[in-house]
Amino acid sequence: MDLVHYAAIDIGSNAVRLVIKRLDDPSNGYFSKVVVLRVPLRLGQDAFTIGEISEKKIHDLKELLRSYAIVMKLYDVKKSNFRACATAAMREARNAGDVVDYIRRKIDMDIDIIPGTEEAAILCAAHMSHCDSRNMVYVDVGGGSTEVSVIADGEMVSTKSYAIGTLRILNDTVDIHVCDDLIHDMQLIAIDYPHSTIVGAGGNISKLFDIAEERDAERQRLSPAMLHKLYNELASMSIEQRVDHFKLKPDRADVIVPAAHIFLTIADALGAVSIEVPSVCLSDGIIEDIYRKQQNGTDKKWF
């Protein structure tokens, strides 16, 4: 049987990630990862400060996507089995349309700039296997935005995107009113959906889980108390000390502290007792979304 591969590119505010998966069992849509590549291009550094993507970053993005396209060709990824999605930085950049057109002309690759609600919905669908009858609040912290979705009885009942992210915090471009809205909304969720468990997504919470001294590895859980302790330790260190002590990459060592702060803000407002950290990212969700639509024989959006 010929191997069938699917691929997704997540053009985030902090990094651009390529994931290629092999379809192992068409009967149940079981995939296994064969390629994961990540480059910290930091488009948000431009978008959240000067309001557009600079020529240098546009050039770098083109060359990076050209390289990713070569990797996908080596795995014989068909165009129908691939999607590239851009999130908060491209949503906010005033020249995003020009960037998309430029990439299409130069390397024949289409980029979909997806709204925060679609980003959250794709991610939520990828995590539904982790959901049960409990109330769960799915939280994805990125460089430019934080998506929060509420799941009750295995169904997504609400989703909202907030313009709060790690790069925005580092560049001091977060609107205080957005922070107030986030906390207020989480307090309302705590009333309507009590005893909720947070399901965290993104590279930062995964890394925080990895380096935490106290964690429930079997259930992939981290307590807010442990995260508070780890946050205080990380915040007291310089970036160089974080790199040395926790063996972090420099592009992770700076954003991991504001990421922990966002998760703690949400956990405190919700009164959550644990944070679950399944290892699924937006690229995984994009691939599952492509496959699901192919199986359903429609391109109709489900969210």
Which descriptors would you attach to this protein?
13 helices; 6-stranded mixed sheet; 5-stranded mixed sheet; single chain; 303 residues; alpha/beta
What features would you describe in this structure?
There is one protein chain. By secondary structure, the protein is of the alpha/beta class. 46% of the residues lie in helices and 21% in strands. The strands form two sheets. It has a six-stranded mixed sheet, sandwiched between helices. It has a five-stranded mixed sheet with strand order 3-2-1-4-5, with helices on both faces. Helix 2 packs across helix 4 (96-107). 45% of the residues are buried.
Short synopsis of the structure:
This protein has helices spanning about 45, 55-75, 90, 95-105, 115-125, 165-170, 175-190, 205-210, 225-235, 240-245, 250-255, 255-270, 280-295; strands at about 5-10, 15-25, 30-40, 80-85, 110-115, 135-140, 145-150, 155-160, 195-200, 220, 275. With about 300 residues, the protein is α/β, with parallel strands linked by helices.
Structural class: alpha/beta
Oligomer: single chain
Q: How many helices in DSSP terms?
A: 13
Shape: globular
> What is the distance, rounded to the nearest whole angstrom, between the alpha carbons of the first and last residues?
34 Å
Low-confidence region ranges: 299-303
Q: What average pLDDT do the residues reach?
A: 90
Q: State the major sheet.
A: 6 strands, mixed
What is the H-and-E element order?
Answer: EEEHHEHHEHEEEHHEHEHHHHEH
Helix share bin: 40-55%
Q: Rounded to an integer, what's the Rg over CA atoms?
A: 19 Å
Tell me what portion of residues adopts beta-strand conformation: 15-25%
Strand order of the largest sheet: 8-7-6-9-11-10
Please tally the β strands and state the result: 11
